[in-house]
Every structure is written in structure tokens, then in C-alpha cells.
Amino acid sequence: MRILAHVCCAPCYVPVHKRLINEGHDVTGFWYNPNIHPFMEYRARLEALMKYQETEGINIIYRDEYPLKEFLKGQINSDDRCRFCYSQRLNKTAETAKEKGFDAFTTTLLESPFQKHAMIKNIGESIGKQNNIRFYYEDFRKWHEQGKKEASSLSLYRQRYCGCIFSEKERFGRKIVE
């Protein structure tokens, strides 16, 4: 199949890309991540993906947009910030996949043991039905450690939190003791 794979970051894409290629699929990455904050973090992740693309000679479609205000409004007004974020990114991936004639779409979010896996799967399947394009589901988490090693060997930037400002606070925030 021709699969468009949403890429949250290069280290997560490495094992997903290799796995899908080894399964015989024609894979193109898709960068769309208005969730990543602050902007310098966004740039670091984008540049790491560009480096991986150059090193491996692979296809990536970039939707390099940073609608900060709109994203934060949507996330703050949502009952579930992760659901909002996953839905937004997977919707753009599905729309792009359909528009460009892909057979299916997937996401590297399925590679991370830190993401809400069942939620991502349900959202992807629902969006696939709405857009009349297949959501390719595979539990890529078993290749997470291998991907980390390969990304490290390629000297790819690896982030330390999911991406949004709230996940950054959860990862690094601590109570100030008076």
C-alpha cells in the first residue's frame, strides 16, 4: 500500500518507517505538528526530521504551519486536550492522504509507550471512516527502544516531552516549596 505516515518526530519515525518499508509498503512521511511548543522545540524537531530525510533519501510532505493561537484556543476549550491534539493532526493527515491518492494513513504516535494508544487507534479509525480512507493500525511500540538506538546513532535530536505546553509543564514542572 501507499501509506502517508504522520510524523510527530524523527526518532519515532525511524522504526515506523523501517517497519512499514520492510512490510513492503510505499511510505511517505507527513509533518504537521502545531502542538509542539515552544517554537524552538518545534524547529528542533522539524530540523531533525529534515536531517533524517536527507540521510535516508526518503519522501516527506511538510505542512510547516505554526498556528499557535488557534491551537491553544482549541486545546484549552477542549474537554480532553490529548483527544483534541490527536484529532487535529490525524484529520490533516487523512485529508492530505486522500487528496494525494494514498491508500491509507497512519501515525508515529502509535510508536510511543507514552501516548494514549487506544485513543489514537479509535480516533484514527473514526477519521478514516469520515474521510473514506483506511487508517493503517499497527502497534509500533515494540520497536520503540530500537528506534531510540537508531535515532541516537544518527545523532537525531530527541525531545523530552510530548510537545504541547501542558506536557512540557507535566514533564518539567515541580512544586515550589516555600
The largest sheet has its strands arranged as 3-2-1-4-5
Helix content: 40-55%
- Whole-number count of domains: 1
CATH C-level class is: Alpha Beta
User: N-to-C terminal Cα separation, in Å?
Assistant: 58 Å
Low-pLDDT residue spans:
none
Order of helices and strands: EHEHEHHEHEHH
CATH fourth-tier homologous superfamily: HUPs
Would you tell me the overall average pLDDT?
89
- What is the structural class? alpha/beta
Share of residues in strands: 5-15%
CATH fold call? Rossmann fold
Brief characterization of the structure:
The chain has helices spanning 10-22, 39-56, 68-76, 81-99, 117-131, 144-153, 165-172; strands at 2-7, 26-31, 60-62, 104-107, 134-135. The chain is of the alpha/beta class and 178 residues long.
Description:
- This protein is of the alpha/beta class.
- The protein has one domain: Rossmann fold (3-Layer(aba) Sandwich), CATH 3.40.50.620.
- The protein is built from seven helices and five strands, in the order E-H-E-H-E-H-H-E-H-E-H-H.
- Helix 2 links the parallel strand 2 and strand 3.
Spell out the key features of this protein.
single chain; 178 residues; alpha/beta; Rossmann fold; 5-stranded parallel sheet; 7 helices; 12% strand
